[in-house]
Write a structure and sequence with these properties.
The chain is of the alpha+beta class. It is 33% helix and 23% strand.
Length: 315
């Protein structure tokens, strides 16, 4: 349509009529004369609006999802925190139970040997005081700890105290290359000297080159004069290899320590030695070898009453 004077007058007239119809519709309410036209328009354009709404709904849902994602993220974060807390609680309970077992085993060893001990916790590891295999414990001179005291745990010999501070002490471990301890063989009482070999088995020089030793034999500490640095009877380890005898005065055997030096936690420092040498009393009982399952052999022999078929007569 061209922009002419007539077209402008027509537009103004249509606008005036529209306003008039709106005024009449509002004032008439439900009896509006244009109600029929409105219903007809709804019948025509309703399906179109529904189709458009259907097309728009996924977008609206996506917007709603984005709007709610913050709340869901917060809920997920809370659940993750609760899950982590539960895992930490379970882990701490497992660790607590493990430490209780360690403490219980250590008290059993101390009771069997009649050692008076001071419990301590390993708080640091690493080279110290020139030693390559050491740990630091959280007990010192204020707790009655002195230099050259024996240190053990529920498995056996850990080491000896080398330096002492007011609240902490340094312990050189039994697997240190500069560590040496007198040993006594279980049952036979054969003596020797064990030397640390780092992460390998201990090297033990037996004083009797002809001593009968076999893998599986166990050793304990022989003890020192005045019970320092070692009290007697502390389990050391189990023989895993025996060098062949060559007629020498001494003989070398290799002993796997009972103690796991890389996972030390709860230890005990012997502050009061036993009144008597416990000998092998601190060693736990050896597990019994499984009994062989009896076998039954069945021999089938032909019966003596069995008849032999007769040979047919010649025809």
């Amino acid at each position: 349509m061209r922009d002419t004077r007539e077209s402008r007058l027509l537009l103004v007239l249509l606008i005036a009529i529209a306003f008039a119809l709106i005024t009449v519709d509002i004032r008439a309410g439900e009896e509006s004369p244009v109600d029929g036209a409105r219903q007809a328009a709804a019948a025509v354009f309703g399906p179109v609006e529904k189709g458009v709404a259907t097309a728009v709904d996924p977008v609206a849902n996506a917007i709603g999802a984005v709007r709610d994602s913050g709340e869901r993220h917060n809920r997920i974060a809370v659940l993750e925190q609760q899950n982590a807390a539960l895992k930490a609680k379970l882990g701490s309970e497992d660790q607590t139970r493990s430490r209780i077992r360690e403490l219980d085993e250590m008290l059993k060893r101390a009771g069997a040997g009649q050692y008076g001990i001071k419990g301590a916790e390993v708080i640091a590891i690493g080279a110290a005081q020139g030693f390559s295999w050491t740990v630091t414990i959280d007990a010192g001179s204020k707790d009655g700890i002195e230099r050259d005291m024996t240190v053990l745990n529920g498995d056996g010999l850990v080491g000896r105290v080398t330096t002492v501070g007011p609240d902490t002490a340094t312990v050189v471990l039994a697997n240190d290359p500069d560590f040496t301890v007198g040993t006594r063989l279980e049952k036979t009482g054969e003596l020797g000297f064990a030397t640390g070999q780092g992460d390998r088995a201990l090297s033990v020089q037996m004083l009797n080159g002809k001593a009968k030793i076999s893998p599986g034999d166990r050793l304990v500490t022989f003890g020192s004069h005045g019970n320092k640095p070692f009290v007697p009877g502390v389990p050391i380890g189990e023989v895993v290899k025996v060098d062949p005898a060559r007629g020498d005065l001494t003989r070398t055997v290799w002993v796997q320590p009972f103690v796991g030096f890389s996972r030390l936690d709860i230890v005990g420092v012997v502050v009061m030695p036993p009144r008597e040498d416990p000998r092998d009393a601190v060693l736990p009982p050896k597990p019994e070898a499984p009994k062989p399952t009896p076998t039954v052999t069945v021999t089938v022999t032909p019966s003596g009453s069995a008849s032999v078929p007769a040979k047919p007569a010649d025809e």
